[in-house]
Amino acid sequence: MITSQRALTSAISVALAAGLTVSLSGCFGNPLERITDGLIEGTVENVIEGTTGVDVDVDGDGSGGSLPDSWPAEIPVPEGSILFSLAAAGTYSATLTVDSEDAAKAGYEQFVSNGYEVVSEISLGDQGYAYGLRSPEWTVQYSWGSDDEGTATVNITASPTEE
Q1: To 5 degrees, how large is the angle CA 54–CA 60–CA 64?
Q2: pTM (two decimals)
Q3: pLDDT tens across 48-72, in order?
């Protein structure tokens, strides 16, 4: 049974990741380009962390964020620039950009080669892909979308598998 804290954390993770994917995918203007001097970035992180106790990292200047120190080694992340990351109540989420759609797909294929079972699959045509994956330890949502320049934005959300 999912606790209300875990449900809230999962909902926050998915909502933030989905919002960042849409806003950074190239379909809309990149709101992070409007962030100046890290002021908003720091404020967002401090408000979320102070209110919820959730470890959040938002990269507003494009220099590259980082994964939480507690990110599980068994949750692979493709090489790229971390835009957002979150760790809360055993749930982890990250949004990053990678060089190409092939790099995003290779990240998904790494889960499959590591023994994760594909439990759901969504194709959004040229707009992107979303997969639900499961191992005995982790339930993962892995998705990506590409922009007109060929860069892909990847979202990964991982929660412990409920028995």
Answers
A1: 85
A2: 0.66
A3: 445 455 454 554 455 568 899 999 9
